[in-house]
Amino acid sequence: MCSDPAAEKQPPPATRARRMDSIRPFYVMEVLERAFALERAGHPVIHLEVGEPDFPTPAPVVEAGMRALAEGRTRYVQALGLPELRAAIADHYPQTCRPHTDRVVVTPGSSGALQLVFGVLIDPGDEVLLADPGYPCNANFVRLYGGEPVLIPVGPDTDYQLTADLIAQHWSERTKAVLVGTPSNPTGTLIDPIEMAHVTARVAELRGQLVVDEIYHGLAYGDPARSALHDSDEVFVVNSFSKYYGMTGWRIGWMVAPEAFMPDVAKLSQNLFISTSTPAQCAALHAFDTEVIDELERRRQLLQRRRDFLVPALRDLGFKIPVMPQGAFYVYADCSNFSDDSDRFALELLEHTRVGITPGRDFGTYRHHEHVRFSYANTLENLEQAVERLRAFLAS
Amino acid sequence: MCSDPAAEKQPPPATRARRMDSIRPFYVMEVLERAFALERAGHPVIHLEVGEPDFPTPAPVVEAGMRALAEGRTRYVQALGLPELRAAIADHYPQTCRPHTDRVVVTPGSSGALQLVFGVLIDPGDEVLLADPGYPCNANFVRLYGGEPVLIPVGPDTDYQLTADLIAQHWSERTKAVLVGTPSNPTGTLIDPIEMAHVTARVAELRGQLVVDEIYHGLAYGDPARSALHDSDEVFVVNSFSKYYGMTGWRIGWMVAPEAFMPDVAKLSQNLFISTSTPAQCAALHAFDTEVIDELERRRQLLQRRRDFLVPALRDLGFKIPVMPQGAFYVYADCSNFSDDSDRFALELLEHTRVGITPGRDFGTYRHHEHVRFSYANTLENLEQAVERLRAFLAS
């Protein structure tokens, strides 16, 4: 309403929901905004702050998306996903843990999956245990539904992961669920299979619900990551075509849900999403093609070489990285040799070296001022260049 | 876990959230499942139960999507949407109500917009006033966040719409917001501009928040639908590329939010969605092209001809349709001359005539047993055929 002066006299809008006080924006946005401003002013930035692979969507997947569009596959489909995609997702799991197709749900990114998981699970006041540091949206999905995230400090002694003992120690009468991410964002660490079996058993004993974020599966540089579906049919497993399959902007992920929750998952997904992008689903159908997997494997090896360069180089500069990250494309580095204010440190680094990194604050509250996250979803040349710039700056 | 017999011994999963008891699946799914079963058995069904245009996405929009894919536009973009798409959406509004681009938010369908609206607005226990009959997901979005939908019975006397008086009459201390849909699903009726100004003023006086669902804008057969942005900058307006623009399966919509809510909307959309489909946004950029709008105008005229056939034909059969629907592509028909159980009536009709319609139950609780919804998003030939089949059945 541009023209009506009466607008000036209207009362202010209704009050905002209280939950919005506890949901924070991402601080990396400040870094990004400043980085874009520098770039507009003609100063190219090496972006090590982004949580997105630097590889494009594999060509056969893109071509399948284009074919889908050409064929008019632009209508609603089933709320739980195209049956053939649900089957393909089920089939991509090893025989030893393959879920029934009926338990596979295609979602608008793993973000959509987490909305469903916590929507069917969390009553106001319920507590959910999470590792700190961890992916910030996870806690916010819990808050969205009136639940209370309980952030458990984790450090190098447990590979920055929750353990069965930590879970038991923080369990309360109000605890409803536990979320673990393996490989973890921001630490790149995995829960080893033996501990994962303990975690699964302990949560079941405590009559809680285990939710496992496997979004970075496929991107592991030691043994392949092992799905929690090996340990139980009663866990929620969340995954995505974004990271390993290089489909971030398409917004498509999936989850495998315990059978008992499927009626609720089905009706909530009808209501929340109607359906997931049809062209994206048609494209994702080709993400498991042999030629695509071959290409993704080459990319994984490239990422491993980058990690093998970056971690020792950062250690050499004076960052402390006590646990070698085994997956994803992140290094969570202790920067206390340089600063006890990682927010300021990240902005200074950007200003003086044109290297963008993410301050620890985005991943929790435990020692976040002493940590920053580097992403190695960037070329080896850029990583080398970034390290040289950091070396010059930190020595000055 | 297929192979491990220990699975059998696991305790049942955690309890489900209480909200799931109040969120219902869509009953039309039962009709659809039976319709698909009939079709698999070789009995083609005329689908008048679907809420989806029968036209494909306009060719220039599809081509823009294909170009985007070819150019590798498959990465995350800004959480609030591509700046150029936000600007194009703002610009498509008439000069007299054009919002600032900063208030436009691109969302994964209008479903995504409604998640944001109620997420930033509703605290547990807050009431939201809604018309009954109305679109069922609206009430469920309120329930999702612990709010309480208050369904206000509406009938032909108010064109099946809320009025300023009805709103005042149902206002309580706990009322936080009012949602109106114009044109309405399922009734196809609009709120006239004078009443809309009253509604806007009354809700503002009561210090509540008005949310206007304009998803079927563009599909009006009398005067063009007038955006609520004409009356106030302090309303949430939700819209979509799905219906008028024929982009259902792409999952892209938008909203215009009051300025004061934008910081909360921004952080919630970061957390809920990361971003909306990039190829869909690139495609939607061309939805406002002149040649596309010309095509959409031809489609609108076609829909009008179908309405002008179907409404008198249904009345002639004995359905009561007291208000001529002025928009969308729905007829909400009183079937009490034939049945007082519209669930059974819809299934019987499907069984005996192979015509699919939606029972009133999906749209509320007020006289739903005496109503069914017909969609005329189907060819005139099919509509004629459907009417003939109904005539034969209802006369028998």
List the helices and strands and how they pair.
Two copies of one chain form a homodimer.
Chain A: H1 19-22, H2 28-40, E1 46-47, H3 59-70, H4 83-92, E2 104-107, H5 109-121, E3 127-132, H6 136-144, E4 148-153, H7 164-170, E5 175-181, H8 193-205, E6 209-213, E7 236-240, E8 253-256, H9 262-273, H10 278-284, H11 290-317, E9 330-334, H12 342-353, E10 355-356, E11 358-359, E12 371-375, H13 380-395
Parallel strand pairs in A: 1-10, 3-4, 3-5, 5-6, 6-7
Antiparallel strand pairs in A: 2-8, 7-8, 9-12, 11-12
Can you offer a commentary on this structure?
- 2 copies of one chain form a homodimer.
- With 396 residues, chain A is an alpha/beta fold.
- Chain A folds into 2 domains: 5-56 and 292-395, Aspartate Aminotransferase, domain 1; 73-288, Aspartate Aminotransferase, domain 2, CATH 3.40.640.10.
- Chain A is 39% helix and 13% strand.
- Chain A is built from 13 helices and 12 strands.
- Chain A has helices spanning 19-22, 28-40, 59-70, 83-92, 109-121, 136-144, 164-170, 193-205, 262-273, 278-284, 290-317, 342-353, 380-395, and strands spanning 46-47, 104-107, 127-132, 148-153, 175-181, 209-213, 236-240, 253-256, 330-334, 355-356, 358-359, 371-375.
- In chain A, the strands form 3 sheets. A 7-stranded mixed β-sheet of chain A has the order 2-8-7-6-5-3-4, sandwiched between helices. In chain A, strands 9-12-11 form a 3-stranded antiparallel β-sheet, with helices on one face.
- In chain A, strand 5 (175-181), helix 8 (193-205) and strand 6 (209-213) form a beta-alpha-beta unit.
- In chain A, helix 11 (290-317) packs parallel to helix 13 (380-395).
- The first copy, chain A, is globular and about 60 Å long.
- The termini of chain A are far apart.
- At the A-B interface, helix 3, helix 5, helix 6, helix 9 and helix 10 of A face helix 3, helix 5, helix 6, helix 9 and helix 10 of B.
